[in-house]
């Protein structure tokens, strides 16, 4: 029995190779898993469930076929790019939404899973913006706008974010370790699995005076990465993006 975790694929029409890599991963690696967790930012940008692009529909169909054929549960946590994914698309793609900080029992070990953007407290501009865009009233107003306006807003935010990244220090973009410790102590866990920072790595830390782990799943830009958990343990796997297509 295996459980798999992926994050930060940032699927878009411009990066077809990542979509192909995901589909190959599902067909050749994930079929014998019992559960698949997607820890946010599966899509590059999301402006509403009513935007029916060929990519959105193709991904939803693939996930549903994968889930039904192999009897595998798919769970999803919102990322900072696709926090507007709603009930309609979740149902269409056979995914179950989880809270932003979610405790799971991972083969006997209580584990905290999350996207990871809430860990980056040094990025104060983003954290201020996050409070605004995650406000239910603001989301309601945004969804009420015509689709063409939401598209413009979504891509303007995306472009501005990309430009700012060039000038940001790694200390700002990375997680705040004190927040990691605080959350792990709050939830009473010795293991955390997250995405967002795009830096696939297993960090050995100390929480409550005991050995602990923080595992960053990594992105799918030039490599594909996933966390594989079983009764034998937890491993972070990083492979060439076309590994399952060779």
Automatic annotation (TrEMBL):
Residues bound to Mn(2+) 2: 41, 80, 115, 196
Binding site for Mn(2+) 1: 8, 10, 41, 198
Pfam families, alphabetized: Metallophos
Annotated protein name in UniProt: UDP-2,3-diacylglucosamine hydrolase
Function of the molecule: Hydrolyzes the pyrophosphate bond of UDP-2,3-diacylglucosamine to yield 2,3-diacylglucosamine 1-phosphate (lipid X) and UMP by catalyzing the attack of water at the alpha-P atom. Involved in the biosynthesis of lipid A, a phosphorylated glycolipid that anchors the lipopolysaccharide to the outer membrane of the cell.
Keywords, comma-separated and alphabetical: Cell inner membrane, Cell membrane, Hydrolase, Lipid A biosynthesis, Lipid biosynthesis, Lipid metabolism, Manganese, Membrane, Metal-binding
InterPro entries registered for this protein in UniProt: Calcineurin-like_PHP, LpxH-like, Metallo-depent_PP-like, UDP-diacylglucosamine_Hdrlase
HAMAP family for the chain: LpxH (MF_00575)
Domain Calcineurin-like phosphoesterase positions: 1-199
Chain residues that bind substrate: 80-81, 123, 161, 165, 168, 196
Compartments where found: Cell inner membrane
Family that this chain belongs to: Belongs to the LpxH family.
EC top class named in words: hydrolase
Membrane association type: Peripheral membrane protein
NCBIfam families in UniProt: lipid_A_lpxH, PRK05340.1
EC number(s) stated in the UniProt entry for this protein: 3.6.1.54
Molecular function in Gene Ontology: hydrolase activity
Reaction catalysis annotation: UDP-2-N,3-O-bis[(3R)-3-hydroxytetradecanoyl]-alpha-D-glucosamine + H2O = 2-N,3-O-bis[(3R)-3-hydroxytetradecanoyl]-alpha-D-glucosaminyl 1-phosphate + UMP + 2 H(+)
Species this chain originates from: Psychromonas aquatilis
Pathway stated in the Swiss-Prot or TrEMBL entry: Glycolipid biosynthesis; lipid IV(A) biosynthesis; lipid IV(A) from (3R)-3-hydroxytetradecanoyl-[acyl-carrier-protein] and UDP-N-acetyl-alpha-D-glucosamine: step 4/6
Note accompanying the cofactor annotation: Binds 2 Mn(2+) ions per subunit in a binuclear metal center.
Superkingdom, natural source: Bacteria
Primary gene name: lpxH
Required cofactor names: Mn(2+)
């Amino acid at each position: 029995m295996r459980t798999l975790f992926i994050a930060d694929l940032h699927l878009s029409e411009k990066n077809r190779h990542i979509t192909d890599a995901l589909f190959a991963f599902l067909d050749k690696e994930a079929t014998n898993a019992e559960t698949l967790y997607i820890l946010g930012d599966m899509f590059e940008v999301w402006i509403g469930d009513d935007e029916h692009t060929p990519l959105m529909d193709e991904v939803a169909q693939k996930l549903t076929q994968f889930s039904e054929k192999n009897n595998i549960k798919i769970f999803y946590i919102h990322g900072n790019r696709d926090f507007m994914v709603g009930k309609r698309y979740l149902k269409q793609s056979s995914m179950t939404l989880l809270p932003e900080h979610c405790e799971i029992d991972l083969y006997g070990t209580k584990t905290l899973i999350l996207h990871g953007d809430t860990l980056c407290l040094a990025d104060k501009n983003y954290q201020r913006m996050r409070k605004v865009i995650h406000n239910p009233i603001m989301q309601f107003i945004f969804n009420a706008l015509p689709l063409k306006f939401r598209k413009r807003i979504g891509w303007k935010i995306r472009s501005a974010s990309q430009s700012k990244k060039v000038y940001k220090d790694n200390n700002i973009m990375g997680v705040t370790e004190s927040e990691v410790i605080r959350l792990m102590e709050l939830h009473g866990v010795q293991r955390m699995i997250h995405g967002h920072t795009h830096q696939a790595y297993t960090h050995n830390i100390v929480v409550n005076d005991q050995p602990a782990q923080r595992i960053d799943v990594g992105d799918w830009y030039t490599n594909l990465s996933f966390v594989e958990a079983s009764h034998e343990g937890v491993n972070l796997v990083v492979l060439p993006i076309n590994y399952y297509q060779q």
